Amino acid sequence: MQKLIRQILTSKVYEAAVETPLEEAPGLSRELGNRILLKREDLQPIFSFKLRGAYNKIAHLSQAEKAAGIIAASAGNHAQGVAFSARQLGLKALIVMPATTPQIKVDAVRELGAEVILHGDNYSEAAERCKELVDETGMTYIHPFDDELVIAGQGTVGDELLRQSAGKMDAVFVPVGGGGLIAGIGAYLKALCPEVKVIGVEPVDSDAMYQSLQAGKRVTLDSVGIFADGVAVRQIGKLTYELCRQHVDDIIRVSTDELCGAIKSVYQATRSIVEPAGALGVAGIKQYVKQTGVKGQTLVAINSGANMNFERLRYVSERTMTGEGRESLFAVTIPEKPGALRHFCEQTLAGINITEFSYRLADRQQAQLFMGVSIGSGEARSSFSSRLSEQGYLNSDLTDNELAKTHLRYMIGGRSPEATRERLFRFWFPERPGALTRFLADMGADWNISLFHYRSQGGDFGRVLIGLEIPAGDEKRLQKFLDNLGYRFVEETKDPAYRLFL
After folding, report:
1. What pTM was estimated for this model as a whole?
2. How far from chain centre, in Å, is Cα 131?
3. Which has the closest alpha carbon to 241: 267, 208, 263, 271?
4. Closest by alpha carbon to 334, among 371, 365, 375, 372?
5. CA pair distance 502, 500, nearest whole angstrom
6. Which of 32, 124, 178, 438 lies 20 to 30 A from 356 at CA?
7. Rounded to an integer, what distance in angstroms lies between the CA atom of residue 123 and that of residue 127?
8. Integer Cα distance of 54 and 51 in angstroms
C-alpha cells in the first residue's frame, strides 16, 4: 500500500496529462437532492483518463525497454494513450486493434504516429496476436490495467479529487472495466480519507468485477456486452482484483437504458457528450440515490472518457426516453371492429402523451397495438397496466423487453400464417464492411429465412433478428449448426412480444 501511494505521488503523469476540473452539476444536483460533482477526465488530450496510466508506465521504462519500442492491444482509449505517450517521448509504437474497431479510432491512433495492425473481431483476439508479436519483435508490452505503474497513473485522479474537494466528499462513483482506475483511486482515497465511499459502476452485461468480488476470486465472463465497449472486459486483473477487494465499498450495475439516460444528463450539465463507459459514474449515482434515498450528500462521478462514435447518437437518443423513465412501451389487444381504435384512444389515452403508436390488421377478431406513452416509471407503469386491464384490454409491459426495443418497434408486417415452424433468434456479429453479407453467407441455405431485421447502431457489433423455418426432425441439426456458427445468439421464440406481433 505504501509503495502504491508513493508511486501515485511521484508519478510522471503531468508530463503529458492535465489536471482536469471537478465541476458541480447544478441541474443534476437539484434533480437528485444531493451535490453532484463531475470529474472531467473527458477533457484530457485524448479525451480519456487512459493517458495517465499509459504515460506513467512508459515514462518509467528503462532505456533498453524504450529502445525496443512499445506495443499494446486495445480497441480504443488505451491505444490512444499509448500512441500519445510514445509520440511525446519519441518512441516507436505498435498497436494491435480488432478489425471491428470504428475507423475514427483507428485514424486517431495513426494520426498520433503509431503503427496499427488490425486483427480479429474482438479485443481478446487482438490481445492474442499482440502476445505473439511481443515474442517475435521483443517490443515492450504496455498492459491496459493490470500493472503497478498504470494503476498508480490512474490513481492520480484520486489525489486530484482530495485536493479539489478539500476531502469533502461522501462517495465517489468510478467506471469499472479491468479495474485499473478504481484500484488506483480506491487505494489512495482509503489511505487518506477512509470515510469516503468508493463505489464501482459496471454495465449489467459486463460485470466481471462484481462477479469476481461476489465469488471471492477472479471470474471469466462467457461474453460481455457491446454497448459500453470501453469497459467490455471478460476478466479483471490480478492486481486490480486484490486492490478492489480491499478498498472498494460496493459495485453498482446499470442497464443500457440507464447509461443512455446518464449520457443525456452529462450533456445537459456540461454540453459535452461522453461515451457510454464515460457515463457509468453518473448512471451509478442516479441508481444509488434512487435505491438509498440519500439527501444532502456530496457525490462525485468520474467522467472517464468522451470518445463517442457520432453514428451511435441515434441509438442513445432513442434509448434515453426509457432510460430516464419518460417512455414506457406496451402491447395492447383491442377488438377488431369499426370504431374500436378511436374508442380506445379517446377513452383510454385521453390526456396521455403518446410517443409511438403502431397498428396492423392481423385477423378479424383482435388487433395488436404497439405503443409508447409518457407516464413515468415503476408504479405509474403498473397503474397504467391495471387501468387497461380494468377496461377490458389485455396488455403487456414491454419497457424492459430487449427484443421489442431493439427490433420490434422498427418492424412492419405482422404475423404470417405461412410461418408454421418458425424459430426466432437474435444474433450479434462483428460490424465491418461486408459483415452483413458474410453473416448471411455463414447462415447457409439449409433452412428458409422467414423473418429478418438489421439496423446499424454505430457500434462495434451489428444486431440481427432472424426467423428460420425448421422442418420436423431438424432440431438437433439446427442446434449443432448454431453451436458451430461462432456468433453470439439468443433464442427469442418464446418471447411474448414475438408471439403478439410477429
Report:
1. 0.81
2. 26
3. 208
4. 365
5. 6
6. 32
7. 6
8. 5
Pairing of strands 298-303, 171-175: parallel
Beta strands at 366-374 and 353-360: parallel, antiparallel or unpaired: antiparallel
Q: Which strands make up the sheet holding 488-491, listed edge to edge?
A: 448-454, 461-469, 422-430, 488-491
For residue 81, pLDDT beyond 70: yes
Q: What is the pLDDT of residues 425-448, one digit of tens each?
A: 998 877 666 667 777 777 766 788
Phi, psi of 277 (to 5 degrees): -65, -30
Cα(371)–Cα(357) distance, rounded to whole angstroms? Answer: 4
**Position 457 pLDDT exceeds 70:** no
245 has a pLDDT exceeding 90: yes
Domains along the chain with CATH numbers: 2-49+147-322 (3.40.50.1100), 52-141 (3.40.50.1100), 325-400 (3.30.70.260), 409-501 (3.40.1020.10)
Q: Which of 349, 394, 356 is nearest to 372 (CA)?
A: 356
Distances (CA, A) of 248 to 125, 221, 336, 378, 402: 30, 20, 57, 30, 31
Q: Would you please indicate which residues are annotated as catalytic (active-site) residues?
A: 50, 304
- Cβ-count burial 215-225 (b if 16+ within 10 Å, e if not): eeebbebeebb
Q: Which spans in 10-122 are helix H?
A: 26-32, 50-59, 63-67, 77-89, 103-111
Highest mean pLDDT among 264-273, 343-352, 398-407, 459-468: 264-273
Q: What is the pLDDT of residues 103-142, one digit of tens each?
A: 778 889 999 999 999 998 777 788 899 999 999 999 999 9
Q: Give me 277's grid cell.
A: 463507459
Could you tell me which of 191, 164, 187 has the C-alpha nearest to residue 174? 187
174 vs 189: CA distance, rounded Å: 12
Written in H, E and C, the secondary structure of 263-318 is: HHHHHHHHCCCCCCHHHHHHHHHHHHHHHHCCCCCEEEEEECECCCCHHHHHHHHH
Q: Please tell me the distance from the alpha carbon of residue 397 to that of residue 407, in angstroms, as a whole number.
A: 16
DSSP code per residue over 131-166? HHHHHHH-PEE--SSSSHHHHHHHHHHHHHHHHHHT
Cell numbers describing residue 417: 400464417
Q: Are 28 and 289 in contact (CB under 8 A)?
A: no
Half-sphere exposure of 477 (CA within 13 A, CB side): 9
* Dmax (CA) of the chain: 83
> With 0-12 CB in 10 A as exposed, 13-18 as middle and 19+ as buried, what is 388?
buried
- Can you point out the beta strands (E) in 388-445? 395-397, 422-430
The residues, any chain, with a CB within 8 Å of residue 167's CB and separated by 6 or more, are 192, 193, 196
